[in-house]
């Protein structure tokens, strides 16, 4: 399923199976989760995507061929491919252990082809082994909702009372980690979305309510996963002195102006960009211990357009996952 031009539906096409380069592996895809970032790419909200493009950056599959320098995984091994597809290793950010900010980074399903397909190639140095206790579809959302959600979560330090705005794929994973670490999750959803509020409580949230409402106690930190700038002042209002508001998405509508009082008393706002390989290693270590259970809705790859539309309208609980074999059989 390819993007030919942003703001037009994806198209199902036959393309040649890619050949792995020296450090790359060829992967037969068994599942690819759908991320809000895919929607931003398809909707033309992110600059300069590769075109035409195979989107998708939460890929699980098996290695079927290896490039000449690729020895990390055996043929038949199960691997995950995340958003961070390649970094230069030489720029000041790479050298400072901040490869998520690499000047020349390539991103899966954005500036290189991704997982809405039957096969993909990936640089093996950026792939992760998948823990055995997950099925392919259950593991797929860990690759972005999990990884970048976890980087956002890490930015909240050891905040005990944690607000989460936008209860989608990332929130449903991160609230399980938070509960495991004995933190309290306060879930904020679209107004009147009682299904999402119920879902949040079923995953251990101690409180769930509308984004415009204030929690019963001041929060120590908040993460905003919804791409809605209006939430920034609302979240600042909900956090206590010294609290942090983390914006976890790649794109957000404009943040409205707000009174300095909301930022005063050493509150802060920050964003999270991409991931490092270390984030991935840390996350997979804790994922097996929790253990994180993902709630997934599985669809055939051919339905990618319909699934993106469901995500756009908040109709997915947990994560949507595309499975290619269902399309071709
Ligand atoms: Zn770099
Ligand atoms: Zn993503």
Descriptive report:
The structure is a single chain. With 329 residues, the chain is of the alpha/beta class. It folds into two domains: 24-143 and 295-326, Alpha-Beta Complex (Quinone Oxidoreductase, Chain A, domain 1), CATH 3.90.180.10; 147-271, Rossmann fold, CATH 3.40.50.720. It is 24% helix and 24% strand. The protein has ten helices and 15 strands. The protein has helices at residues 36-42, 92-95, 136-139, 145-154, 169-180, 194-202, 231-238, 277-289, 304-312, 325-328, and strands at residues 24-34, 59-66, 78-81, 84-86, 106-107, 119-123, 128-129, 161-165, 184-189, 207-210, 219-224, 239-247, 268-271, 296-300, 319-323. The strands form three sheets. Strands 1, 2, 3, 6, 7, 14 and 15 form a seven-stranded mixed β-sheet that branches. Strand 11 (219-224), helix 7 (231-238) and strand 12 form a beta-alpha-beta unit. Helix 4 (145-154) packs across helix 5 (169-180) and helix 4 crosses helix 8. The longest helix is centred in the last third of the chain and has 13 residues, at 277-289. The chain is globular. 48% of the residues are buried. The mean pLDDT is 96. Bound molecules: zinc ion (ZN) (2 copies). One zinc ion is lined by residues 87-88, 90-91, 93-94, 102-104.
